[in-house]
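Memo to structure team: turn this sequence into C-alpha coordinates by end of day. - J.P.
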Amino acid sequence: MGFKCGIVGLPNVGKSTLFNALTQTAAAQAANYPFCTIEPNVGEVAVPEPRLMKLAEIAGSANIIPARMNFVDIAGLVKGASQGEGLGNQFLANIRETDAILYVLRCFEDDDITHVAGKIDPLADFETVETELMLADMESLEKRRANLEKKAKSGDKEAKATIELVDLALAELREGRPARNADVPEDMGKEWKMLQLLTSKPVMFVANVDEDSAGTGNEFSKMVEERASREGAACVVISAKIESELALLEDDERAEYLSEIGLDEPGLDRLIHVGYTLLDLQTYFTAGPKEARAWTIRKGWTAPKAAGVIHGDFERGFIRAETIAFDDYVANGGESGAREAGKLRQEGKEYVVQDGDVMLFKFNV
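Reply from structure team:
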Protein backbone atom coordinates (compact mmCIF):
# COMPACT_ATOMS: atom_id res chain seq x y z
CA MET A 1 0.00 0.00 0.00
CA GLY A 2 1.24 3.45 -0.87
CA PHE A 3 -0.47 6.74 -1.33
CA LYS A 4 -0.86 9.21 -4.16
CA CYS A 5 -0.04 12.90 -3.86
CA GLY A 6 -1.08 15.36 -6.54
CA ILE A 7 1.46 18.11 -7.24
CA VAL A 8 -0.54 21.24 -8.13
CA GLY A 9 0.11 24.92 -8.63
CA LEU A 10 0.17 27.68 -11.21
CA PRO A 11 2.32 27.27 -14.34
CA ASN A 12 6.08 27.84 -13.96
CA VAL A 13 6.31 27.40 -10.19
CA GLY A 14 8.59 24.34 -10.33
CA LYS A 15 6.10 21.46 -10.23
CA SER A 16 7.71 19.42 -12.98
CA THR A 17 11.22 20.15 -11.71
CA LEU A 18 10.13 18.85 -8.31
CA PHE A 19 8.49 15.81 -9.89
CA ASN A 20 11.64 15.01 -11.88
CA ALA A 21 13.70 15.18 -8.72
CA LEU A 22 11.24 13.00 -6.83
CA THR A 23 11.23 10.25 -9.41
CA GLN A 24 14.87 10.75 -10.46
CA THR A 25 13.77 10.72 -14.07
CA ALA A 26 13.22 13.25 -16.81
CA ALA A 27 9.75 11.86 -17.46
CA ALA A 28 8.09 15.23 -16.90
CA GLN A 29 9.26 17.93 -19.29
CA ALA A 30 10.32 20.97 -17.26
CA ALA A 31 10.16 23.96 -19.59
CA ASN A 32 9.57 27.68 -19.32
CA TYR A 33 6.08 27.84 -20.75
CA PRO A 34 2.59 27.05 -19.40
CA PHE A 35 1.08 23.61 -19.92
CA CYS A 36 4.35 21.84 -20.78
CA THR A 37 2.78 18.94 -18.83
CA ILE A 38 0.01 17.79 -21.15
CA GLU A 39 -0.76 14.46 -19.47
CA PRO A 40 -0.45 13.86 -15.74
CA ASN A 41 2.85 12.16 -15.03
CA VAL A 42 2.80 9.50 -12.35
CA GLY A 43 6.01 8.46 -10.65
CA GLU A 44 6.72 5.87 -7.98
CA VAL A 45 9.21 6.83 -5.29
CA ALA A 46 10.91 4.66 -2.69
CA VAL A 47 10.21 5.90 0.85
CA PRO A 48 13.54 6.69 2.60
CA GLU A 49 13.80 4.27 5.52
CA PRO A 50 17.18 3.80 7.29
CA ARG A 51 15.66 1.18 9.61
CA LEU A 52 15.07 -1.13 6.65
CA MET A 53 18.78 -1.12 5.77
CA LYS A 54 19.64 -2.05 9.35
CA LEU A 55 17.15 -4.91 9.41
CA ALA A 56 18.48 -6.27 6.12
CA GLU A 57 22.02 -6.19 7.46
CA ILE A 58 21.07 -8.14 10.61
CA ALA A 59 18.82 -10.64 8.79
CA GLY A 60 21.30 -11.14 5.94
CA SER A 61 18.54 -10.36 3.45
CA ALA A 62 19.30 -10.97 -0.23
CA ASN A 63 16.86 -8.26 -1.32
CA ILE A 64 15.72 -4.96 0.15
CA ILE A 65 12.25 -3.74 -0.83
CA PRO A 66 11.23 -0.29 0.43
CA ALA A 67 7.68 1.02 0.71
CA ARG A 68 6.64 3.13 -2.25
CA MET A 69 4.46 6.14 -2.86
CA ASN A 70 3.07 7.81 -5.98
CA PHE A 71 3.36 11.40 -7.06
CA VAL A 72 1.24 12.85 -9.84
CA ASP A 73 2.53 15.91 -11.69
CA ILE A 74 -0.62 17.77 -12.74
CA ALA A 75 -0.49 20.53 -15.34
CA GLY A 76 -0.54 24.12 -14.11
CA LEU A 77 -3.97 25.40 -13.21
CA VAL A 78 -4.97 28.97 -14.02
CA LYS A 79 -7.75 31.29 -12.93
CA GLY A 80 -10.98 29.98 -14.48
CA ALA A 81 -9.86 26.33 -14.50
CA SER A 82 -13.15 25.27 -12.87
CA GLN A 83 -14.90 26.71 -15.92
CA GLY A 84 -12.57 24.96 -18.33
CA GLU A 85 -9.95 27.71 -18.77
CA GLY A 86 -6.50 26.52 -19.77
CA LEU A 87 -6.49 22.74 -19.44
CA GLY A 88 -8.54 22.92 -16.27
CA ASN A 89 -11.30 20.33 -16.32
CA GLN A 90 -9.28 17.25 -17.18
CA PHE A 91 -6.74 18.07 -14.50
CA LEU A 92 -9.35 18.70 -11.84
CA ALA A 93 -10.43 15.11 -12.48
CA ASN A 94 -6.82 13.94 -12.02
CA ILE A 95 -6.61 15.74 -8.66
CA ARG A 96 -9.82 14.02 -7.55
CA GLU A 97 -8.05 10.64 -7.72
CA THR A 98 -5.25 11.60 -5.30
CA ASP A 99 -5.09 11.08 -1.52
CA ALA A 100 -3.45 14.42 -0.73
CA ILE A 101 -2.60 17.68 -2.48
CA LEU A 102 0.82 19.31 -2.56
CA TYR A 103 0.52 23.02 -3.31
CA VAL A 104 3.82 24.00 -4.93
CA LEU A 105 4.24 27.74 -4.42
CA ARG A 106 6.88 29.85 -6.12
CA CYS A 107 9.09 31.54 -3.55
CA PHE A 108 11.95 32.64 -5.77
CA GLU A 109 12.77 35.55 -8.08
CA ASP A 110 14.07 34.73 -11.56
CA ASP A 111 13.73 37.09 -14.49
CA ASP A 112 14.35 34.21 -16.90
CA ILE A 113 11.27 32.29 -15.72
CA THR A 114 8.01 34.06 -16.38
CA HIS A 115 5.14 34.14 -13.88
CA VAL A 116 1.62 34.04 -15.26
CA ALA A 117 0.54 36.89 -12.96
CA GLY A 118 3.67 38.94 -13.61
CA LYS A 119 4.73 39.04 -9.94
CA ILE A 120 5.91 36.72 -7.17
CA ASP A 121 3.18 36.30 -4.56
CA PRO A 122 2.95 32.69 -3.26
CA LEU A 123 -0.15 33.34 -1.13
CA ALA A 124 -2.03 34.84 -4.05
CA ASP A 125 -0.99 31.82 -6.11
CA PHE A 126 -2.33 29.48 -3.44
CA GLU A 127 -5.63 31.35 -3.23
CA THR A 128 -6.03 31.27 -7.02
CA VAL A 129 -5.59 27.51 -7.19
CA GLU A 130 -7.65 26.69 -4.10
CA THR A 131 -10.47 28.97 -5.27
CA GLU A 132 -10.67 26.99 -8.49
CA LEU A 133 -10.83 23.75 -6.52
CA MET A 134 -13.57 25.16 -4.27
CA LEU A 135 -15.60 26.34 -7.27
CA ALA A 136 -15.28 22.90 -8.87
CA ASP A 137 -16.46 21.24 -5.63
CA MET A 138 -19.39 23.62 -5.33
CA GLU A 139 -20.54 22.96 -8.89
CA SER A 140 -20.22 19.21 -8.42
CA LEU A 141 -22.22 19.20 -5.17
CA GLU A 142 -24.98 21.46 -6.44
CA LYS A 143 -25.52 19.19 -9.44
CA ARG A 144 -25.52 16.10 -7.24
CA ARG A 145 -27.89 17.56 -4.66
CA ALA A 146 -30.89 17.79 -7.02
CA ASN A 147 -30.71 14.07 -7.77
CA LEU A 148 -30.24 13.22 -4.08
CA GLU A 149 -33.34 15.26 -3.15
CA LYS A 150 -35.49 13.15 -5.50
CA LYS A 151 -34.22 9.95 -3.90
CA ALA A 152 -34.65 11.33 -0.37
CA LYS A 153 -38.29 12.25 -1.06
CA SER A 154 -38.94 8.65 -2.05
CA GLY A 155 -37.69 7.51 1.37
CA ASP A 156 -34.08 6.65 0.52
CA LYS A 157 -32.31 6.91 3.91
CA GLU A 158 -28.84 6.82 2.37
CA ALA A 159 -29.71 9.76 0.15
CA LYS A 160 -30.97 11.74 3.15
CA ALA A 161 -27.71 11.12 5.02
CA THR A 162 -25.69 12.12 1.96
CA ILE A 163 -27.65 15.37 1.58
CA GLU A 164 -26.66 16.30 5.13
CA LEU A 165 -22.99 15.88 4.20
CA VAL A 166 -23.46 17.76 0.93
CA ASP A 167 -25.05 20.68 2.80
CA LEU A 168 -22.24 20.57 5.36
CA ALA A 169 -19.68 20.96 2.57
CA LEU A 170 -21.66 23.60 0.69
CA ALA A 171 -21.99 25.72 3.84
CA GLU A 172 -18.19 25.95 4.03
CA LEU A 173 -17.63 26.45 0.31
CA ARG A 174 -20.21 29.24 0.02
CA GLU A 175 -18.36 31.08 2.78
CA GLY A 176 -15.14 30.81 0.81
CA ARG A 177 -13.67 28.03 2.95
CA PRO A 178 -12.44 24.60 1.78
CA ALA A 179 -14.54 21.53 2.56
CA ARG A 180 -11.82 20.17 4.88
CA ASN A 181 -12.94 22.83 7.41
CA ALA A 182 -16.31 21.11 7.83
CA ASP A 183 -17.06 19.43 11.17
CA VAL A 184 -17.89 15.94 9.90
CA PRO A 185 -19.51 13.45 12.33
CA GLU A 186 -17.06 10.71 13.30
CA ASP A 187 -19.34 7.93 12.10
CA MET A 188 -19.69 9.52 8.64
CA GLY A 189 -16.03 9.55 7.65
CA LYS A 190 -16.37 6.89 4.97
CA GLU A 191 -19.43 8.56 3.41
CA TRP A 192 -17.67 11.93 3.48
CA LYS A 193 -14.68 10.50 1.63
CA MET A 194 -17.02 9.04 -1.01
CA LEU A 195 -18.06 12.58 -1.97
CA GLN A 196 -14.56 12.86 -3.54
CA LEU A 197 -14.22 16.56 -2.84
CA LEU A 198 -11.07 18.24 -4.05
CA THR A 199 -10.89 20.54 -1.03
CA SER A 200 -11.54 17.87 1.58
CA LYS A 201 -8.14 16.26 0.97
CA PRO A 202 -5.20 16.80 3.34
CA VAL A 203 -2.84 19.46 1.98
CA MET A 204 0.84 20.24 2.16
CA PHE A 205 2.41 23.56 1.23
CA VAL A 206 5.70 23.22 -0.64
CA ALA A 207 7.61 26.52 -0.64
CA ASN A 208 9.93 26.29 -3.64
CA VAL A 209 12.84 28.63 -2.86
CA ASP A 210 16.02 29.66 -4.65
CA GLU A 211 19.23 27.70 -4.07
CA ASP A 212 20.68 30.18 -1.56
CA SER A 213 17.55 29.91 0.61
CA ALA A 214 17.33 26.11 0.71
CA GLY A 215 18.63 25.90 4.28
CA THR A 216 17.12 29.01 5.83
CA GLY A 217 14.10 29.90 3.72
CA ASN A 218 13.32 33.48 2.67
CA GLU A 219 10.67 36.16 3.11
CA PHE A 220 8.33 34.40 0.68
CA SER A 221 8.65 30.97 2.32
CA LYS A 222 8.06 32.50 5.77
CA MET A 223 4.75 33.87 4.47
CA VAL A 224 3.85 30.38 3.26
CA GLU A 225 4.81 28.75 6.58
CA GLU A 226 2.63 31.23 8.49
CA ARG A 227 -0.33 30.58 6.18
CA ALA A 228 0.13 26.81 6.44
CA SER A 229 0.09 27.12 10.22
CA ARG A 230 -3.19 29.05 10.10
CA GLU A 231 -4.65 26.45 7.74
CA GLY A 232 -3.53 23.58 9.97
CA ALA A 233 -1.58 22.24 7.00
CA ALA A 234 1.87 20.72 6.66
CA CYS A 235 4.66 22.79 5.09
CA VAL A 236 8.06 21.97 3.61
CA VAL A 237 10.63 24.50 2.37
CA ILE A 238 12.54 23.05 -0.55
CA SER A 239 14.63 24.10 -3.54
CA ALA A 240 13.41 22.02 -6.46
CA LYS A 241 16.47 23.05 -8.44
CA ILE A 242 18.85 21.72 -5.77
CA GLU A 243 16.81 18.54 -5.41
CA SER A 244 16.99 17.92 -9.16
CA GLU A 245 20.78 18.23 -8.95
CA LEU A 246 20.97 15.95 -5.90
CA ALA A 247 18.93 13.32 -7.72
CA LEU A 248 21.74 12.87 -10.25
CA LEU A 249 24.49 12.31 -7.67
CA GLU A 250 25.79 9.11 -6.10
CA ASP A 251 25.20 8.63 -2.35
CA ASP A 252 28.66 9.82 -1.23
CA GLU A 253 28.56 12.83 -3.56
CA ARG A 254 25.06 13.66 -2.35
CA ALA A 255 26.15 13.64 1.29
CA GLU A 256 29.09 15.92 0.50
CA TYR A 257 26.89 18.34 -1.45
CA LEU A 258 24.33 18.48 1.37
CA SER A 259 27.09 19.24 3.86
CA GLU A 260 28.41 22.06 1.69
CA ILE A 261 25.03 23.79 1.53
CA GLY A 262 24.25 23.22 5.21
CA LEU A 263 21.46 20.63 4.94
CA ASP A 264 21.18 17.44 7.01
CA GLU A 265 19.05 15.54 4.49
CA PRO A 266 17.50 16.06 1.06
CA GLY A 267 14.36 18.17 1.10
CA LEU A 268 12.58 15.36 -0.73
CA ASP A 269 13.14 13.02 2.23
CA ARG A 270 11.51 15.61 4.49
CA LEU A 271 8.66 16.01 2.03
CA ILE A 272 7.97 12.26 1.97
CA HIS A 273 8.14 11.93 5.76
CA VAL A 274 5.82 14.91 6.24
CA GLY A 275 3.50 13.30 3.72
CA TYR A 276 3.41 10.15 5.84
CA THR A 277 2.42 12.17 8.88
CA LEU A 278 -0.13 14.11 6.84
CA LEU A 279 -1.92 10.92 5.81
CA ASP A 280 -1.57 9.23 9.21
CA LEU A 281 0.60 6.44 7.84
CA GLN A 282 3.22 4.26 9.46
CA THR A 283 5.57 1.40 8.58
CA TYR A 284 6.00 -2.17 9.72
CA PHE A 285 8.63 -4.62 8.48
CA THR A 286 9.15 -8.22 7.48
CA ALA A 287 12.72 -9.52 7.48
CA GLY A 288 14.45 -12.77 6.61
CA PRO A 289 17.21 -14.27 4.44
CA LYS A 290 15.16 -13.83 1.26
CA GLU A 291 14.19 -10.18 1.73
CA ALA A 292 13.71 -7.30 4.12
CA ARG A 293 10.62 -5.28 3.26
CA ALA A 294 8.80 -2.19 4.49
CA TRP A 295 4.99 -2.12 4.42
CA THR A 296 2.85 1.01 4.66
CA ILE A 297 -0.36 0.96 6.72
CA ARG A 298 -2.66 3.45 8.42
CA LYS A 299 -2.07 4.15 12.09
CA GLY A 300 -4.52 2.23 14.24
CA TRP A 301 -4.73 -0.82 11.99
CA THR A 302 -4.97 -4.20 13.70
CA ALA A 303 -2.63 -7.10 12.92
CA PRO A 304 -5.06 -8.93 10.54
CA LYS A 305 -5.66 -5.79 8.48
CA ALA A 306 -1.91 -5.10 8.33
CA ALA A 307 -1.36 -8.69 7.21
CA GLY A 308 -3.85 -8.14 4.39
CA VAL A 309 -1.49 -5.62 2.79
CA ILE A 310 0.81 -8.55 2.02
CA HIS A 311 -1.96 -10.86 0.79
CA GLY A 312 -5.70 -11.15 1.33
CA ASP A 313 -5.28 -14.75 2.53
CA PHE A 314 -3.12 -13.51 5.40
CA GLU A 315 -6.03 -11.41 6.68
CA ARG A 316 -8.77 -13.97 6.04
CA GLY A 317 -6.91 -16.82 7.69
CA PHE A 318 -5.07 -14.83 10.35
CA ILE A 319 -4.06 -16.84 13.43
CA ARG A 320 -1.43 -14.70 15.15
CA ALA A 321 1.51 -12.40 14.51
CA GLU A 322 4.99 -13.00 15.90
CA THR A 323 6.06 -9.45 16.68
CA ILE A 324 9.34 -7.79 17.68
CA ALA A 325 9.78 -4.06 18.23
CA PHE A 326 12.44 -2.61 15.93
CA ASP A 327 14.73 -1.55 18.80
CA ASP A 328 14.48 -5.01 20.37
CA TYR A 329 15.26 -6.67 17.04
CA VAL A 330 18.41 -4.58 16.64
CA ALA A 331 19.52 -4.81 20.28
CA ASN A 332 19.29 -8.61 20.26
CA GLY A 333 20.82 -9.22 16.86
CA GLY A 334 17.72 -10.40 15.07
CA GLU A 335 14.81 -12.81 15.49
CA SER A 336 16.64 -15.63 17.32
CA GLY A 337 18.24 -13.30 19.84
CA ALA A 338 14.97 -11.49 20.44
CA ARG A 339 13.18 -14.80 20.97
CA GLU A 340 15.79 -15.93 23.51
CA ALA A 341 15.58 -12.60 25.32
CA GLY A 342 11.79 -12.85 25.58
CA LYS A 343 11.25 -9.90 23.26
CA LEU A 344 9.27 -11.80 20.62
CA ARG A 345 5.54 -11.47 21.35
CA GLN A 346 2.60 -13.55 20.11
CA GLU A 347 -0.07 -11.01 19.16
CA GLY A 348 -3.68 -11.79 18.29
CA LYS A 349 -6.46 -10.28 16.18
CA GLU A 350 -6.98 -7.25 18.43
CA TYR A 351 -3.36 -6.13 18.42
CA VAL A 352 -2.84 -2.62 17.03
CA VAL A 353 0.35 -2.59 14.97
CA GLN A 354 3.00 -0.08 16.08
CA ASP A 355 5.38 1.83 13.84
CA GLY A 356 8.58 -0.18 13.35
CA ASP A 357 7.17 -3.57 14.35
CA VAL A 358 8.98 -6.51 12.73
CA MET A 359 6.29 -9.12 12.06
CA LEU A 360 5.79 -12.70 10.94
CA PHE A 361 2.19 -13.70 10.29
CA LYS A 362 0.76 -17.14 10.93
CA PHE A 363 -2.38 -17.94 8.94
CA ASN A 364 -4.51 -20.81 7.70
CA VAL A 365 -6.89 -20.81 4.73
